[in-house]
Structure formats: C-alpha cells, structure tokens
Amino acid sequence: MRGRAAVSIELNEDERAFLEAQLRRHKAARSLSDRCGIVLKCADGLSNKEIASVLGHSEHTVGKWRNRFAQHRIGGLSDEYRAGRPRTVSDEQVAEIIKRTLETTPKDATHWSIRTMAARSGLSHTTVRRIWNAFGLQPHRSETFKLSADPLFVDKVQDIVGLYMAPPNRAIVLCVDEKSQIQARDREQPVLPMGPGVAERRTHTYIRHGTTSLFAALDIATGAVIGKCYKRHRAAEFLDFLKKIDAAMPDGPEVHLVMDNYATHKTPKIKAWLARRPHWHVHFTPTSASWINQVERWFAELTRKQLQRGVHRSIAELEADITAFINAHNENPKPYRWVKSADEILASVKRFCQKTQQSLCHEL
User: Fold this and answer.
1) Exposed e or buried b per residue across 324-340, where buried means at least 16 C-beta atoms within 10 angstroms of its C-beta
2) What whole-number distance in Å separates Cα of residue 295 and Cα of residue 164?
3) pLDDT tens, 143-160?
4) Which of 268, 285, 286 is closest to 147 using CA atoms?
5) Whole-prediction pTM value?
6) How far apart are alpha carbons 249 and 255 in whole angstroms?
C-alpha cells in the first residue's frame, strides 16, 4: 500500500531567487539554509525519501518543511514562537531586590554582596547576579570625587581650556607643576625576575632611602618636557626652576604658564620675577582641579613606567632614572590631545552636581 501523496511545491521567480540566495550566503543560519535546500529539492519534484537521502535529513523533517512551506510559503521557514520555561521570579521580587540594593545595607557590612542578598531575599545567587547585571548594579564598586569650590571655577576653566584648544599665535603654552616627595625605595629582598608562566615578584615591604621633588614643565604643542629634581620644593626651588625654563625659551614668543594655586607659586619674589617679564602670562587652575593641568598626565606616565616598580638604593639613583626618563621622552615627544571644550566640561560638572543634589535630597 502506498502512503499519502506529498504536497506538490511550485515556486515563483521571487521565491526561487530568495531560496537560492540563502544557500549562497555565508552568514545565513544553518537551519534556514537547510530548510531552503529542502524546499528547492521539493520544487524539483523529488520525493521526501529521495531528499532525505541526498541532504542527510529524516523523512519526517523533509515532510514537515514541505508542508510548512506549502501552507505559509517563505514565512513558514522561520521558527515558531516558543513560550519557553515559565518565569519563576515575579516583577515584584525583582523590584524588591533593586529597592533593597539601592536603599539599604546589611547589618554587618557597608554594601550588599550577591551571596548576602541571595540569603536575605531567598532567591538564588545566580538570580541576584542576573538582576544586578540587567540593571547595572555593582554594590562592590565605589568611586571618589572632589568638586572644586573655587568661586572663579567657570572663568578659569574657560581660560585654560581655551589655551589648550586655541593657543595664541606665536606663543608657548607650558603646564607647570611639581611632583613632591618621590621616594627612593629599595625592596627588602631581591626582585625575582619574570619567567615563562611566572610574573615578576617582589616583596610588599621596602626600605626608604630619602625623597626628591621633581619640577616639570610640559609644552602642550610638542609634548616636550623640561624637568629638574630638587631636595625640597620651596619658593626658592621654584624660582630656580622658572629661571631654567626662561633659559630654555627662545626670544620673542609670549610664554603662558598653567599652574596651580600652591603657596610657593605666589610668593613676593615669584611675583616680582614674573613682573619683570611682561611677555610671561600666568593662568592659575581652579582649586581641587589638578586634572585640568596636562603635566599631571605626564606625571602619571612617569609613575607607571618608571617609579612604580623601580628599585632605587639612593636619591642619586632615583634622580638619574628620572632624568633618563625625561631625556628618552624628549627624543620622540608626543603632545596630549585635549578633546573636551569648556562648555562640555561645565555641562558635565553641572549634571554631576544635580545628580549629587538629588541623592542628598533623597537621603534627607
């Protein structure tokens, strides 16, 4: 006895073109390309058994997609909606987890962990993790901030950022600051060098061999640095460093100094020395806003590349390494690119202040 006859498949030009295109696509889903291949073979007049033998599918699979295409055409080749496993966590439970995370703390800690929240809520720790990830909650993380209380904050930001983004013609802009109390540190035991599969190892304890202070001036146009180490960082040392900068400057161009409000920068001797040089112009950064001084970025590079893992048995060794770093940097200097305008910075500070104010009001 013969079974029920298979449904005949006839394709129009658009349908055949679409099915053949899916077979040629490299990024098409494997399941979709298999179904397209089955339908094309059906349209060529092959039986389900023959198609199953050629394509390596079961007769049941071939018959399923033959019938689906006959009923729904190309739209029938997509997977049908599957409800999936029923939810085990309600919206109310999710809202409770979020509210508890944001508004409360555990009795024995300053913040919630996944395990403590799971124990408190009765849910699994994987469920808590998924909820926190979905809403971007990270109670284990904490950041610090410092808002400037300078009454001239807006004016100073506009002035200094203007220098960075549109410096005056034929002028030199220097970012000046000092990195004080740089310690010459030696490890109590020898450093174990790196090996295959083994990181460099060093003791966490160290021996201090004194400190030095580095005065540095960064040319924002070229990225070159003028630097000198001193035993102390008083006004006398700062004046000596200004003289070193003056000696390195060419005749003619205006010189603009960007520096902070440290007391040694404003002594009568410093003011008198600057007054005798009318082509020198000083731009003070806002208080508690060292991030606006570009030389701080260079100090961070010095710390990361030279000081953080350096071993120095004397101040002389430390100062020699700092000088070598400056010389190597100046062989191929690259300026830092300032991208944010003053308006963007001020808008960002405004948003942060508003968010902080809302948080304080919410707590009260």
Assistant:
1) ebbeebeeeeeeeeeee
2) 12
3) 888 888 889 999 999 999
4) 286
5) 0.70
6) 8
HEC assignment per residue over 247-258 = HHCCCCCEEEEE
Domain-by-domain residue ranges, the chain? Answer: 13-77, 91-135, 153-346
Q: Could you tell me if 219 and 330 are in contact, meaning their C-beta atoms sit under 8 angstroms apart?
A: no
37 pLDDT band, cuts 50/70/90, is confident
At residue 363 the predicted structure's pLDDT band, cuts being 50, 70 and 90, is low
Task: Pull the structure tokens for residue 207.
Answer: 């021996």
For residue 2, pLDDT beyond 60: no
The C-alpha atoms of residue 303 and residue 310 are separated, in whole angstroms, by: 9
* Cα–Cα distance measured from residue 318 to residue 302, given in angstroms and rounded to the nearest whole number: 12
Q: Give the model's pLDDT for residue 22.
A: 82
Q: Does domain 153-346 have CATH number 3.30.420.10?
A: yes
Q: Contact at 8 Å (CB) between 187 and 197?
A: no
Give the whole-angstrom CA distance, residue 43 versus residue 36.
11
Hey, what amino acid is at 345? I
- Residue range 4-21: average pLDDT? 84
Which residues, 6 or more positions from 46, have their beta carbon under 8 angstroms from its beta carbon? 54
Looking at residue 1, what is its pLDDT? 42
Give Dmax over CA atoms of the chain in angstroms: 115
**Cα–Cα distances in Å, from 354 out to 135, 148, 150, 158, 361?**
22, 15, 18, 21, 11
The secondary element (H helix, E strand) that includes residue 206 is strand 206-219
pLDDT, position 21: 86
